[in-house]
Amino acid sequence: MNLTESGYEIQGIPVLEIAQQYDTPVYVYDSEIIHKQYKKLSDAFSGIDMKVKFACKALSNINILRLLKSFGSGLDTVSIQEVELGLYAGFDPADIIYTPNCVSYDEIKAAINKGVVINIDNLTFLEKFGHDYGNSIPCCIRLNPHILAGGNHHIQTGHIDSKFGISIYQLRHMLRIITTYNIKVTGLHVHSGSDILDADVFLQGAEIILDTAKNFTDLEFIDFGSGFKVGYKDDDVTTDIAILGNKMSAVFNDFCKEYGRDLQLWFEPGKYLVSEAGYFLVTTNVVKQTVSTVFAGVNSGQNHLIRPMFYDAYHGIVNISNPNGAPRVYSVVGYICETDTFAWDRKIPEIREGDILCFLNAGAYGFTMSSNYNSRLRPAEVLVHEGKHYLIRRREVLNDLLSTQIEIQL
């Protein structure tokens, strides 16, 4: 989003025009930024056979999935419903990896029947899988490397107390199961967490998983998950993808030479690809001054964007309607019957009732984590692509809330 003399624009389209046409609240996505991020990641690993598997839990609108598919991306899924969305969007089953945790074994069998790559993260299901399928269907195994990484404890997934993956200290037990049932393991997977700053954290995980990989003879790929840090503030330190690409490529190439053949290297970026491409537009309902605070109350809340409340996440906020107004200090809050505060004591150009505010970096885990709390309706989604804007999800109406309810006579 660029600030011009006439106001904020996305691909040359005035943002206020989008807000006026589709009303607010509304999520808006910029396809150019998604493509830029995808290309940056691909170029950083140009020396090896690297495959991108977009973590669709970040943003699962089928139009976004198809856009990423057109760039060459595969898909990382964590539920059978995400698998079905990916297949509906046109992905080949072989390009979809399914990495669930704590699901029923029946769900895993359903994913197997759809032909996607199965990633198993516990010994109990590995043994069931071996009993049912032997070596007739290959699988991937998710390892827990016992690395504490990630910006918030909710998104730290590779430490010793994590529910995710099979501990590397259970390797001998794992290998016994694989040998007993003649399981064909074609991939190994590791994901340490999100918001990782240092490329050396990835290399630490690489050292562990590559050393473990020497125990497997049928590998075709190694999946390092993701967790690349994106910037939410102007001075945020982010993952240097170019440095990561150089270091990881060298380490991976050395391993492949030792292993005896070239393998594919997979990554599963979600936030990295779509976060900066997303904008969330809301309207100011009221400017309310108390004895200590000036609140800007908007027509949205934690039901639409829960990250600030759930993760204490920072989102930049700009006043689209009054970009050159005199800065004042506001707390931006929602309309939910909770303390749903988007930002405390934030300096923003003067906010007036009716002004359109824009939350930045709202492309990841925004709409996908939304809800109907307080019986509020979920917002629309709009894609800006090649200089045009398209409605890709309509705003909910009351009948959407009632459609799954069954009335009974009391």
Structure description:
With 410 residues, the chain is an alpha/beta fold. It folds into 2 domains: 2-28 and 275-402, Lyase, Ornithine Decarboxylase, Chain A, domain 1 (Beta Barrel); 99-269, Alanine racemase (TIM Barrel, Alpha-Beta Barrel). It has helices at 15-22, 31-44, 62-71, 80-88, 105-113, 123-133, 171-181, 199-213, 241-259, 271-274, 307-310, 398-402; strands spanning 2-4, 7-10, 13-14, 26-30, 50-55, 74-77, 96-98, 117-120, 139-144, 166-167, 185-190, 221-223, 264-267, 278-289, 294-298, 317-319, 327-333, 341-349, 356-359, 380-385, 388-393.
How would you briefly describe this protein structure?
With 410 residues, the chain is an alpha/beta fold. It has twelve helices and 21 strands. It folds into two domains: 2-28 and 275-402, Lyase, Ornithine Decarboxylase, Chain A, domain 1 (Beta Barrel); 99-269, TIM Barrel (Alpha-Beta Barrel).
Q: At the first level of CATH, what is the class of the largest domain? A: Alpha Beta
- CATH homologous superfamily (4th level) name of the largest domain: Alanine racemase
The assigned CATH architecture of the largest domain is Alpha-Beta Barrel
Taking the alpha carbons of the first and last residues, their distance comes to 54 Å
Which percent band covers the strand fraction? 25-35%
Main sheet makeup: 9 strands, mixed
Number of helices: 12
CATH topology of the largest domain: TIM Barrel
Q: Structural class, judged by helices and strands?
A: alpha/beta
The share of residues in helices is 25-40%
